[in-house]
Amino acid sequence: MVKISFQPAVAGVKADKASASASAPAPAPAPAAEILLTPAREERPPFHRPKKGGSVGGVCYLSMGMVVLLMGLVFASVYIYRYFFLAQLARDNFFHCGVFYEDSLSQVRTRMELEEDVKIYLEENYERISVPLPRFGDGDPADIIHDFQRGLTAYHDLSLDKCYIIELNTTVVLPPRNFWELLTNMKRGTYVPQTYITQEDMVVKEPISDKEALGSFIYHLCNGKDTYRLRRRTPRRRINKRGAQQCNAIRHFENTFVVETLICQAV
């Protein structure tokens, strides 16, 4: 509170009272008048609302943080897939197959066994089949590549050391993923094929000089070897290799059945 005092002295009044005061005893002085005033309410600083820009900025920073976090999770998943899952898959892409089949192409039907090694490359989308020299029955040892990217098949006859190229027959050859699943089930014992044999008849055509145009996989297989193009023809009556030395047979397993690829020289 603020205390304010007033003195009651006025010039005119003092003159009139001067004479009276001479004759009369001086009265006691009057107390000074006091007025108590309540101070004005203290002014508060004006209230400022937060600007909307600040909250929008916070949302943006939060969104950016979430995006960075999600990208980190995606890259981590890709890393785990490439370096762990694919590494495990790479160890499981090699198969040693042994299948039994009924040799209906021979004059006397017998139950035969075919062995081969298979490597399947899912990312590159091709298969490589290695057929050793059969212990029993007909057939030449060979390395075979089915390149699904180029749509080509290459046969390397190890007995002749020659390569033969033809368009990939997708009605006979299983794609890498399907073939991998088939061989995986065979490896686990969930599928035991009791299969048959079919024949495809081919004739040798012109030689191929530009092997690089065949793709890197077939190029590495056939580089430095005489390479020829093949043409399919309608299968004829079974040709006995002993009676016709111009034909060579390669037996291999690339589906649920065994295929004998008969490669004959043009007459």
From TrEMBL:
| Compartments it resides in | Cell membrane; Lysosome membrane; Membrane
Q: Which biological process, per GO, is one annotated for this protein? A: neuron differentiation
Picking any one GO molecular function of the record gives:
amyloid-beta binding
Q: This protein's superkingdom?
A: Eukaryota
One Pfam entry name: BRICHOS
Q: Can the keyword Ligase be found in this entry's annotation?
A: no
**Any one of the GO CC terms:** lysosomal membrane
- Chain ranges passing through the membrane: 59-81
Give the record's keywords alphabetically. Answer: Cell membrane, Cleavage on pair of basic residues, Disulfide bond, Glycoprotein, Lysosome, Membrane, Phosphoprotein, Signal-anchor, Transmembrane, Transmembrane helix
What residue stretches are annotated with the BRICHOS domain? 136-230
Q: What is its membrane topology?
A: Single-pass type II membrane protein
**Assembly with partners or alone:** Interacts with BACE1. Interacts with APP. Interacts with STMN2.
Q: Record's family?
A: Belongs to the ITM2 family.
The family database entries (PANTHER family) matched by this protein are listed as: INTEGRAL MEMBRANE PROTEIN 2C, INTEGRAL TRANSMEMBRANE PROTEIN 2
* Protein task: Negative regulator of amyloid-beta peptide production. May inhibit the processing of APP by blocking its access to alpha- and beta-secretase. Binding to the beta-secretase-cleaved APP C-terminal fragment is negligible, suggesting that ITM2C is a poor gamma-secretase cleavage inhibitor. May play a role in TNF-induced cell death and neuronal differentiation.
Q: What is this protein called?
A: Integral membrane protein 2
| Species name | Chinchilla lanigera (Long-tailed chinchilla)
Q: Which gene encodes it?
A: ITM2C
